[in-house]
Amino acid sequence: MKERLILAARLLALTFLVLAFAKPYIPGENSANSGKQKHVSIFVDNSYSMETLNRDGSLLDEAKKRAKEIASAYNINDRFQLLTQDFEGRHQRLLSRDEFNDAVDTVKISPRSRSLQEIVDRQQSLLAMHKEAPGSLYIVSDFQKNMARENLVKTDTGLSVNLVQLKASPLPNVAVDSVALLSAIHRPGESEKMVVRLHNYAGESAEKIPLRLLVNGAQKALGSYTIGPRAVQYDTLTFSGLQAGWQRAEITLQDNPVTFDNQFYFTFEVRQQMPVLLVDGGIPNRYLKAVFAADPFFAAKQVPDGNVDYASLNTYPLIVLSDVHAISTGLSQQLKTYVNKGGTLLVFPSADIDLTSYKGFLGSINASYPEKLITGDAKVTGFDLQNQVFKNIFENFPQNPDLPSVKAYYQLSTTGNNAENLMTLPGKQTFWGEYASRKGKVYVSAVALNEDFSNLPTHALFVPVMFRIALLSGHDQPLFYTLGRDETIEIPPVQTNEKQLLKLVKTGQSIIPETKQIEGSTLLYMADQLQQTGIYDLKKQDSSVAVLAFNDNRSESDLSYLTGADLAKLVPHAKPVLEVGSGSMKSILTETNFGLQLWKLCIILALIFLGLEILVIRYFKTDRRSVSQPV
User: Fold this and answer.
1) How many angstroms separate the CA atoms of 279 and 301, rounded?
2) I want to staple 429 with a disulfide (CB 3.0 to 4.6 A). Which of 4, 76, 403, 425 is the partner?
3) Contacts of 140 (CB under 8 A, 6+ apart)
4) For the segment 414-448, what is each residue's pLDDT rounded down to a tens digit?
């Protein structure tokens, strides 16, 4: 019996030892391709939200760790793609495992923020070039809600899609979303009012968040704000004492521990003078000349309608068209482009106009046009005090105001869209109308600027209304741009050549954007060249053309995340979302890709049976001998 037990133990130990070297396994989901080379695309989320801390450090550090664990679960001959929010060209290639691990170590936080569909499309574009090998894609991210910009993410059916979600600790966060200056034109020494939009992205109230406004390094305003959970709050800051030139402004918050969105940059220009273009029919209008000569802030230039420099139109915030008999096709087209890009046009008809040309031009920019001349005495019966033009004009409005009187006027059409009547005649006929056209505005008067039509040129209202229209006519550069969103920037026309290129310059950084000249503007194409927020000087050689501010995309400020159920609906063809705790992903993925490996179990069983053999030899006693007796 002892010998038979020893033999059985030895045979079983030998059997399991042989099986261990044979590497038996229970087939897994992807084990059918276990013998083939695989191509694996791994996305590591490096957006600002990945700076958030959890128990193991920052989410980015954990994402890099998980990416390496995914790579270690594959064979040494498999090839890997590393993809980040930057979508860099160097990441559009396959790497060995060692090269992949080295590339992961270089990943840093990026201001970019892509949607899930953009990420999947980028991964699939590379794997589609290598269809000869099985492909898998992994997305390692915290999966903020801003990544779900589509109702459904489309994926190729032949790919294995895996989502690895990292868990972040819930944190409060308040950020400045945007700013707006109430004045379109900024004059030296005048008081400025700015509206700030504060957003609390957390589900709890933010108490007494301090805010500070700096302009050119000098503190201009302070504030402290309490904002309700998930609430938006607007506040107005007032400051003054600005000199002529470009103003570099920054708003800072003290909002810990999330600090990547605590700064907000913007720039604007305070002008020493405001240029105004006066286009006439050949004889300068003396009333317009007198109006703009009354204030040295306005630099008025008079030109006849046949001698207009079309290339320079975009440099004038306000163009006044007066006493022009017929508007030529060329001038009409250029003024239309000017208005559509944000310019302000003020039209006073001549005493003898070509109705057809005015109809063709004003109708094309959604403004009312003169239809016929009406003669007879009349009086302006009212005006819109709620309109921006009349704000800050009257300290006390009289009950019986002296309004302009009319001897003749042009009846304006009623086809103008987005119309506001500054002044009206009896029967609600428009005397002076305001019309929105694309980004710009058009003001059309029903009377010519001479006393044969009305006493408007000599009326007390004329000068302040003209000044208000001029001061509301600014179409400066935007106060700020957003990284990753505003990839094309439009500026006033700047002539460049191979020796005189435009450069964006910041301390320690210089970028040469691609430029394109279009009608009345210069376009700058930024692509992905800008990676840092802040204020940049746009220079041509040594002269400064403009000063531009760039901020991060505030979508990263909302630290709310998609759940597993949300992701299952969003990416229906993906495998169940992996939420790895403190364990390793290698064992999970190895089982999925290669099946449940049994060689370790075989070695353990072989050792057990070898141990049983030793026990049998040592403790199985055979000293008693059996005595055979004859029957």
Assistant:
1) 8
2) 425
3) 42, 43, 44, 45, 63, 66, 67, 70, 164, 166
4) 865 568 899 999 988 999 999 998 888 999 999 99
Picking from 246, 225, 215, 115, the residue whose alpha carbon sits closest to that of residue 176 is 225
CB 415 within 8 Å of CB 422: no
DSSP letter, residue 4 = H
Nearest to 608 by CA among 3, 2, 8, 1: 8
DSSP state of 628: P
φ/ψ of 244, rounded to 5, equals -65, 145
Kindly calculate the radius of gyration of the chain based on its CA atoms and give it in whole angstroms.
37
Angle subtended at Cα 412 by Cα 406 and Cα 415, rounded to the nearest 5 degrees:
155
Tell me the pLDDT tens digit for each residue of 114-145.
999 999 999 999 988 887 778 899 999 999 99
Are the C-beta atoms of residues 143 and 220 closer than 8 Å to each other?
A: no
The encoded tokens of residue 475 equal 């179409």
Where helices occur in 189-347 by DSSP H, the ranges are 286-293, 329-340
User: DSSP secondary structure string, 410-425?
Assistant: EEEPS--SSEEEEEEE
Tell me if 265 sits within 8 A of 213, measured CB to CB: no
- Per-residue pLDDT tens for 265-294? 999 999 999 999 999 999 999 999 999 999
Query: Which backbone phi and psi does 535 adopt, to 5 degrees?
Result: -110, 130
Question: Is residue 256 packed enough to be buried (19+ CB in 10 Å), middle (13-18) or exposed (0-12)?
Answer: exposed
C-beta atoms surrounding 392 within 10 Å:
10
Tokens of 149: 């910009």
Per residue, what are the HEC states of 327-368?
CCHHHHHHHHHHHHCCCEEEEECCCCCCHHHHHHHHHHCCCC
Q: Provide the token pair at 421.
A: 């009547």
CA–CA separation, 214 and 193 (whole Å): 14
> Residue 104's closest CA among 88, 71, 82, 74?
82
With beta carbons less than 8 A apart as the criterion, state whether 536 and 121 touch.
Answer: no
**Confidence (pTM):** 0.79
Q: What is the DSSP-derived secondary structure letter of residue 460? A: T
The type of residue at 604 is I
Closest of 592, 559, 502 to residue 169, by C-alpha: 559
